[in-house]
Specification:
The protein has 237 residues and is an alpha+beta fold. It contains 7 helices and 11 strands. InterPro entries: Acyl_CoA_acyltransferase, Leu/Phe-tRNA_Trfase, Leu/Phe-tRNA_Trfase_C, Leu/Phe-tRNA_Trfase_N.
Length: 237
């Protein structure tokens, strides 16, 4: 593997076309998870993914998995789940808990990429209004599904999602798309292709096309008041 550019202090990210083919999209190593560094990365379609306590690894995969909000696919079974209206929804009410659930359920015995440093960094982004969470609660009021990510301009950069009950991460995604459509967001970044996201309507586009979407929308303004949802999942249909 060729030597990776090392980020130190405020050194800039290298051009994204220098990312490795294998591992797919690995661009640079080092630097920190300060809000400024993270926002600079997302503006260019770069995100951190690593296992603490190793140095931060920065990625920009080729191709890129995205979901255009108008192309969300709601299956018949998911539609039935929504109609039953057994789940309550909230936005930005328990951001840290959503991250912790994602870390717990994404762990595979080899560790998780959502460590303490990542948790602190994204909670900081949440505090300054750039990171958001959607929570799904059952009838007992327990947090049983959700997602979180970073909103910049007309793009939501999805980071992770979790389900503790059937379809609850999908309910969170339907809620997110509800907000995206209302706010005129262009796309949801899903990072790397997965069967799960493909079943919901995600597709792969080239890195160049993804970056073109960013260039067109990253400076768009959106109303902070958009981040709200109906109290019950049945109202999303």
């Amino acid at each position: 593997m060729q030597a990776l550019p090392q980020l130190r202090g405020d050194s800039p990210f290298p051009p994204t076309d220098q990312a490795l083919e294998y591992p797919n999209g690995l661009l640079a190593v080092g630097g920190d998870l300060s809000a400024g560094r993270l926002l600079e990365a997302y503006r260019r379609g770069i995100f951190p993914w690593y296992e603490e306590p190793q140095p931060v690894l920065w990625w920009t995969p080729q191709p890129r998995s995205v979901l255009f909000p108008e192309k969300l696919h709601i299956s018949r079974s998911l539609r039935k789940t929504l109609r039953r209206a057994n789940y309550a929804l909230s936005v930005d009410q328990d951001f840290e808990a959503v991250m912790r659930q994602c870390a717990q359920l994404r762990g595979d015995g080899l560790g998780t990429w959502i460590g303490d440093d990542m948790l602190a960094a994204y909670c900081d982004l949440h505090y300054i209004g750039h990171a958001h969470s959607i929570e799904v609660l059952n009838q007992q009021g327990d947090l049983v599904g959700g997602l979180y990510g970073v909103a910049l301009g007309g793009v939501f950069f999805g980071e992770s999602m979790f389900s503790a009950e059937t379809d609850t991460s999908k309910i969170a995604l339907v809620g997110l798309v509800h907000i995206m459509r209302r706010g005129g967001f262009r796309l949801i970044d899903c990072q790397v292709e997965s069967e799960h996201m493909n079943s919901l309507g995600a597709e792969s586009i080239s890195r160049l096309d993804f970056e073109a979407h960013l260039d067109q929308t990253i400076d768009a303004a959106h109303d902070p008041g958009l981040w709200r949802l109906p109290a019950n999942c049945g109202e999303l249909l």
